[in-house]
Structures are given as structure tokens and as C-alpha cells.
Design brief:
- The complex is a heterodimer.
- Helix content of chain A is 82%, strand content 4%.
- By secondary structure, chain A is mostly helical.
- Chain A has one domain (3-333).
- In chain A, strands 1-2 form a two-stranded antiparallel sheet. In chain A, strands 3-4 form a two-stranded antiparallel ribbon.
- In chain A, β3 and β4 form a beta hairpin.
- In chain A, α1 runs antiparallel to α5.
- Chain A is globular and about 60 Å long.
- In chain B, 71% of the residues lie in helices and 6% in strands.
- Chain B contains 14 helices and 10 strands.
- In chain B, the strands form 5 sheets. Chain B has a two-stranded antiparallel sheet with strand order 1-2. In chain B, strands 3-8 form a two-stranded antiparallel sheet.
- In chain B, β1 and β2 form a beta hairpin.
- In chain B, α2 packs antiparallel against α3 (83-115), α3 runs antiparallel to α4 (124-153) and α6 (179-208) runs antiparallel to α7.
- The termini of chain B are far apart.
- In chain B, 53% of the residues are buried.
- Classes of the chains: A mainly alpha, B mainly alpha.
- At the A-B interface, α2, α3, α4, β2 and α12 of A face α2, α3 and α13 of B.
- Chain A: It holds the Pfam family Cyt_bd_oxida_II.
- Chain A: InterPro entries: Cyt-d_oxidase_su2.
- Chain A: It is found in: Cell membrane.
- Chain A: It is a multi-pass membrane protein.
Chain lengths: 337, 449
């Protein structure tokens, strides 16, 4: 495997990691606010905060990893995406900043504030919506370079069915992933009332997830024929994705093995996300950047991969320790510690 | 409104970094202070010190949150505001940027563990161990990111071919000539600043209320650490000057208003320049600049005249240098005074005048950080990568940059205000004395002297 292929795979894994952990976080924020306005916050907000408190800052780092890594491995992305994304990127930064800091202010500060809760819930849906736009842009047609000046075609972007189908998919996926995780966490905590509630959410958002995926798929065929056909060639990955979705549904419906149900959901998104990504190649930005031409020097690519492996050797044990302390420690989850 | 995108790009980055640097400094230094306090607390079985660690850590989380989000902001802004810089530099210097994220990740994971496991381990020593990765992660982040800044000053590790960087060696780029002195200076000044700000808080509490044992111990610890790192920072500053004299002499010359190359050069502090660029009303230290630059009072120091006009940094950085140095000396003097007074039984190290000076040293230390950083950045002008790319060439061409400036200004005002309000509320509603009693009911009331 060439170093640029390793590079893009590593980055894609990080983005996938962010997709999962951030979805849990974003969705939890929305559910916490929703529970509050429907006066059910006493049922589940304790559960949500027990999970989120120790891990919220870790979530952000997955994302930082991705964009720092992209610019490192494929410096041309800075030129194109950097210029074109100034406005949407800045808005995403501000939303992320509001979300992250308000979480801390609310949680560690002494007073509970409804405004903080609202912003925390609202950003939970707005951030995935705005970040998913970057994936839409990568399909090409929206970022153009004319006479050496890179610009973003806003009107085209906001009137395009594909971009809206992706936004829709991002939001329902967040709610679905988050609800299945919270179902598992509630079961783990042996918290019956919360479990009943979040399981209902998980079942509710499952069908829209599949509808949104299909819609995005069809919209893509209208927008980028090449990518669409490449994805059709990888039909088995999407088949596996649907298969895992069905397993997750069956488990959730029967009300058992919630841990396995969540893992199935993770696999469902893993195969869909990598199928999408593999079909996207060789383009990082259609038609300007490909992984071969846009890649950094070989020595840098090699150094980054070495750093990445060394970093993983440090991080994986730490993450396992973190999970053992807060995720798989039954006493902690139940609120006894 | 027709604004220059380059100017707006610079302003937006100045603002983001000027704000972030406060929280980044806290992120590097405070974990060390927490770790030291907890270690003493565990070793001496002294609840005061462990309470110190607990309370510092609780405040620290709030600043970490702001640090994380502003750090994410600057990380993305590098690509959004300086796309051409990142495209070129990404090829050579992305390795430490990448590793910085790893270091931060490491720090974040262990900070989460540290904060939520105060009473979870049988041995308190185990909990203290968790603080070490936080200290190390914070330090490594600072080191990696400083190598990037060092690279911008003395770029190495590549050759130029057809206007692009070729034959890239990421390791040489990381360990460029500016790296050692810069890393040393950044680390020591971050530690001294955090010790000074915590000392300022203790001094403030003692000025407002009667001095309790808790605050006295806090003051002793923080001022001692201030003294140690103020001394080390002085050494680091000296090494930085010597580095500049050798590798980046236009920066030193501009900062010192040293126009003509000469032997036995005087050090000029403050003052201003008249029409003939002659310093007026300055403090003049004979031959000291030569000593500062080359450890020899009669050595030759390169003057600004040897550089073409268009690559000379702005002359106002002179004041940044002077203010930074003056504050550094002030920190060293005040902490030394405290230590001397506390060693002699007859003297009272908690007298009001000294407490006021210690209180002032906290905010001043942060000002010194800002001044030093402005000196480092402005002193590199007009370059973004010295000798290869100017700031003007690197900036975004997007016309929306002006609008983004106001958007971010609003964000930082909100964040700064809420952070301050939250911190005040957190500690005011829960004084240390009450919390100590609650957690350790057996503790003796320490209000004797």
C-alpha cells in the first residue's frame, strides 16, 4: 500500500471515530434539552452527564486530528478548502466553541441555566449539519478555481438537493447513533425508566436513518455519476451495512443485548462510511485534488505515519483505561462512585 | 467597507492567538502546580495541600474548556486564514503540528480521569500518578507547537526547487536553530506565569480577609515556584538574545534600536526616537547589548543598517522587549524579596505592601507573555516563513475575512466574560475554609497568626 493510501485510510478512520463519538455527544445534548422541555429531565439527564463529563474534551480531539492530518498529508487541501471554507468553517468553529465551553460553564459552574441547555441542544444538531457540508463540497461543482482564485458557490450549494439530503442524513444519523448508545448505557446502569425512554428514541429514529441514506444515495447519482457508480461497484459494503442495521433493529426491538446492538450500529456506519469513502477515491476534492497528486513529500508522509503509530501506542492504552474507569465500570455508570 | 484582507487576516489571528495564549499558558503551567501541591499533600499527609490541588483543578477545567475551543479555532484558522502558508508549510512542518494533537489528546484523556477519580483509589498516591501524564502532555504540546513557530523564524530541512519545497527532512525542520532557545523560553515562562497568577490569587485572598494557614501555605508554595522559574526564564531570555544575535540579528537590532554595527554596543531601554532615528530620554547601559548578544562586553553586534529596508521589522517592538524584560525582572525581584523576608524570623513576609506586589505580579506575568509573543511575531515581519514567504503572500484571498473578524471578536468577548463569571461564582460560593471543614472535619482551625 502506498503511503498516501495509508494516510487517507488513517484519516478516514479518525473521521469515522469522530462520527461515532461526536454523534453520541451531539445527540445526547439534543436529548438532554428535549427531555428538559418535555419535563422528563429527571429521568435521563443524570445518565447523560455521567457519561459526558469525563469524555467531552476527548471528542473534539478526533476532529482536530482529522483536519490537522489532512493538511499534513495533503497540503493542497489547505489551498482549496481553506480558502473556500472560510465562512462555513468559521461558523462551525464558533458553534463548536459555544458548545464546548458552555458545556463546561454549565456543568462545573454552580448555576444551571436554560440558555446554556438550549444552546447545547441546538448546536448538537447544527454542528453535524454544517460539518456534513464539507463532504458535500468534496463531490465537486461547488468549489471552483477561476484565474487562480478559489471560491465557493453558495447559491448552488444551498439549492442543491444532494447537499440537503446529506444534511438530513447527518442529523438523523446523529440522533440514531446517540439513542442506541444511550440505550446501552442506560441498560448498563440498570436505569429502567431512562432505558424505556431512550430505547423508544432509538427505535423511532431507525427508519428515518435508512430513508435518509437512500435519499442521499439517489441524490448523489444525480450530482456525481462517477462516485455513484464506484459505490455501486462496492455494493457488498452497503449490503453489510444494511445487514448490521437489521441486526441492531432486531436486538433493540427484542429488548436485549443492547451492547451488541450498539456495536452493530457502529458496523452499520463503518461499512457505509468506508464504502462511501472508497468510492470517493482517488479524489479528495473533485476534480482538483487527488490522493496521489495532492500528497505531501514521501519523507513527510513517512514521518507522519511513524508518528501516528507511535501516538497510537500511547493513546490506545490510555483510552482503554478511560473506558474502563467510566464506561465499563458498572459502579461508576450506576452512579455509586 | 473596503478593508485590506491581509490586514484583517493578521488582526483575526492576533486576536485569536492573543486570547488563546492566555489559556494555552494556563494549560501548560497549572497542571505542574496542581501536581506539586498534591504531591506535597500526599507526602506530608497535609489536607491543606490536597485541597489546594482540588480547588486549582476545579478552576482549571473551566480554563481548559476555553483553551480547547480556542485551540480548535486557531488550528482551523491556520488553514482558513493562511491557506497558502499551510499549503507550503504543511509539506515541511506538519509533523510537529500532528504530534501536538497527539500530546493534547493524551493530556485530555488523563485530565478527564484525574478530575473524576479523587476518592476512587485506595492509595492517594495512585491518583497523584494520574497528574503526571497531564503535566507531560501539556509540556509536549507546548514543545511541538513552539517548534512550528521556530521553523517560521529559521526555516530549515528542505531545499528549494522550482519555487516549491523539495528534499524535505521533517526532523531537521523541527529541530531548526530557533527551537532550543524558544522551547526553553516558552516552557519556563509558562510555568512562572502560572505560579505567579496562583500566588496573586492567594495574596488577594490574604489582603481581603485574615490570612488562614491554607492561604499562607498556598502563597509559600506558589511564590517559591515563581522564584525558581523566574530565574530559569531569565537564563532562557539570555539564551534567546544570543540566538537572535547569531541567527536573526535584524530582530534583535530592531528590538534594541541598534542601528549601526559596532563593538561594545550599549543596551537601550525605553525612550523614543526623534526625526533622525536617535533615541531620546532612554536608559542606556554601556556595552550591555554586546554582553547580552555574545557574552563579551566588546563584541560586535550587527546593526539594522545591514538589512534592506523592506525586510526590517517595525521599530515599536522595542517597547515589547523592554516591557517583557522589565516584568521578568520584577517577578524575580518580588519573589526573591518574599523568600528573604520569610527566612528571617523577625521580618513579616505577609506585610501588606509585599502582598500587593505579589498580587500585581500575576496579571503582569500574563502581560509579559503577550508582549513576548508580540515581539516574537512582529520581529519576524514581513515574513511568515523567514526568507521564503511573506505574510502578504500567505493570507487568504477571501473577501469575507473582515466579517469573520467581528464574528470572532463577539465570540471571544462572550467566552472571556462567561469564563470569568463562572470562575468567580465557583469560588465565591464555596470558600476554601468551608470546604476544608466539610471534607476534613478533624482539621484544626488555622487562624493563629
Amino acid at each position: 500500500m502506498s503511503y498516501e493510501m495509508i494516510g487517507i485510510t488513517v484519516l478516514w478512520i479518525f473521521l469515522y471515530g469522530y462520527l461515532i463519538v461526536a454523534s453520541v455527544d451531539f445527540g445526547a445534548g439534543f436529548y438532554a434539552y428535549y427531555a428538559k422541555i418535555t419535563k422528563k429531565d429527571h429521568v435521563m439527564n443524570q445518565l447523560i452527564s455521567r457519561y459526558l463529563s469525563p469524555v467531552w474534551e476527548v471528542t473534539n480531539v478526533f476532529f482536530v486530528f482529522f483536519f490537522v492530518g489532512v493538511v499534513g498529508f495533503f497540503p493542497d487541501t489547505a489551498h482549496y478548502y481553506g480558502t473556500a471554507l472560510l465562512v462555513p468553517g468559521s461558523i462551525a468553529i464558533i458553534l463548536l466553541a459555544i458548545r464546548g465551553s458552555f458545556y463546561a460553564f454549565e456543568n462545573y459552574g454552580s448555576k444551571k441555566s436554560n440558555v446554556y441547555m438550549f444552546l447545547y441542544g441546538a448546536t448538537g444538531l447544527l454542528i453535524p449539519a454544517s460539518l456534513s457540508m464539507a463532504l458535500t463540497l468534496s463531490e465537486g461543482g461547488f468549489i471552483v478555481e477561476e484565474n487562480g482564485v478559489v471560491s465557493l458557490k453558495y447559491f448552488k450549494l444551498f439549492t442543491n438537493p444532494y447537499s440537503w439530503s446529506v444534511v438530513f442524513l447527518a442529523i438523523v444519523s446523529v440522533l440514531f447513533i446517540s439513542a442506541t448508545f444511550l440505550t446501552f448505557y442506560a441498560a448498563r446502569a440498570n436505569d429502567r425508566p431512562a432505558l424505556t425512554l431512550v430505547r423508544k428514541y432509538a427505535l423511532f429514529w431507525s427508519v428515518p436513518t435508512i430513508i435518509a441514506s437512500l435519499t442521499a444515495f439517489i441524490a448523489l447519482s444525480q450530482h456525481n455519476q462517477r462516485h455513484y457508480e464506484a459505490m455501486l461497484d462496492l455494493w457488498w459494503m452497503f449490503g453489510l451495512s444494511v445487514g448490521f442495521f437489521l441486526i441492531a433493529m432486531a436486538l433493540l426491538y427484542q429488548g436485549k443485548h443492547y451492547g451488541l446492538a450498539f456495536i452493530s450500529v457502529m458496523f452499520q456506519f463503518f461499512f457505509a462510511f468506508f464504502g462511501y469513502g472508497a468510492g470517493h477515491l482517488p479524489y479528495i476534492l473533485d476534480p482538483y485534488i487527488t490522493i496521489t497528486e495532492g500528497a505531501t513529500h514521501q519523507s513527510m508522509g513517512f514521518a507522519l505515519i511513524v508518528a501516528f503509530i507511535a501516538g497510537l501506542c500511547l493513546l490506545i492504552p490510555s483510552l482503554i483505561l478511560l473506558m474502563r474507569l467510566f464506561l465499563f465500570d458498572a459502579d461508576y455508570v450506576k452512579g455509586k462512585r | 467597507m473596503n478593508v485590506d484582507p491581509v490586514l484583517m487576516s493578521r488582526l483575526i489571528t492576533t486576536m485569536t492567538l492573543g486570547f488563546h495564549i492566555i489559556f494555552a499558558t494556563l494549560g501548560v503551567g497549572i497542571p505542574l502546580m496542581i501536581s506539586i501541591a498534591e504531591f506535597i499533600g500526599v507526602k506530608k499527609k497535609d489536607p491543606h495541600y490536597r485541597m489546594l490541588a482540588r480547588r486549582w483543578a476545579r478552576g482549571f477545567v473551566i480554563t481548559v474548556a476555553v483553551g480547547v475551543v480556542t485551540g480548535t479555532a486557531i488550528g482551523l484558522q491556520l488553514s482558513l486564514v493562511w491557506p497558502e502558508f499551510m499549503q507550503v508549510a504543511g509539506n515541511v512542518i506538519s509533523l510537529p503540528l500532528f504530534m501536538e494533537v497527539f500530546a493534547f489528546f493524551f493530556e485530555a484523556i488523563f485530565l478527564g480521569m484525574y478530575l473524576y477519580t479523587w476518592d476512587r483509589f485506595k492509595k492517594p498516591f495512585t491518583h497523584w500518578l494520574l497528574s503526571l501524564p497531564v503535566v507531560i502532555g501539556g509540556g509536549l504540546s507546548a514543545i511541538f507547537i513552539t517548534t512550528v513557530n521556530a521553523f517560521m523564524n529559521t526555516p530549515e530541512g528542505f531545499t528549494m526547487a522550482n519555487g516549491a519545497f523539495a528534499a524535505v527532512n521533517p526532523i531537521t525542520a523541527m529541530f531548526n536553530p530557533a527551537t532550543p532557545s524558544k522551547v526553553f523560553h516558552v516552557l519556563t515562562s509558562a510555568y512562572v506565569t502560572c505560579a505567579a497568577i496562583l500566588a496573586a490569587i492567594s495574596a488577594f485572598m490574604m489582603l481581603r480577609k485574615k490570612a488562614s494557614d491554607y492561604h499562607k501555605k498556598a502563597l509559600k508554595l506558589t511564590v517559591t515556584v515563581t522564584f525558581i522559574f523566574a530565574s530559569l526564564t531569565a537564563i532562557a531570555g539570555d539564551l534567546s538574545a544570543k540566538f537572535l544575535a547569531e541567527h536573526q540579528s535584524e530582530k534583535l537590532a530592531a528590538a534594541e534600536w541598534h542601528f549601526e554595527t559596532e563593538k561594545g554596543a550599549d543596551l537601550i531601554m525605553f525612550g523614543w526616537l526623534d526625526e533622525q532615528n536617535e533615541p531620546r530620554y532612554e536608559f542606556r547601559f554601556p556595552k550591555l547589548l554586546s554582553f547580552l548578544a555574545h557574552s563579551d562586553f566588546n563584541s560586535e553586534v550587527t546593526g539594522l543598517e545591514e538589512f534592506p529596508e523592506e525586510v526590517r521589522p517595525p521599530l515599536w517592538i522595542h517597547y515589547m522587549f523592554d516591557l517583557m524584560t522589565a516584568i521578568g525582572i520584577f517577578l524575580l525581584a518580588v519573589s526573591m524579596l518574599y523568600l528573604i523576608l520569610s527566612k528571617v524570623k523577625k521580618w513579616n513576609e505577609h506585610n501588606k505592601g509585599l502582598l500587593i506586589l505579589i498580587f500585581l505580579s500575576g496579571p503582569l506575568a500574563f502581560l509579559a507573555i503577550e508582549f513576548g509573543w508580540i515581539l516574537a511575531e512582529e520581529g519576524r515581519q514581513p515574513w511568515i516563513i523567514r526568507g521564503y514567504m511573506t505574510v502578504e503572500e500567505a493570507a487568504t484571498s477571501s473577501p469575507y475575512i473582515g466579517l469573520m473578524f467581528w464574528l470572532f471578536l463577539g465570540l471571544y468577548i462572550v467566552l472571556g466574560t462567561l469564563c470569568t463569571v463562572t470562575l468567580r461564582k465557583m469560588f465565591r460560593s464555596n470558600p476554601a475554609e468551608e470546604e476544608l471543614e466539610k471534607l476534613y472535619p478533624t482539621i484544626e482551625k488555622g487562624d493563629d497568626s
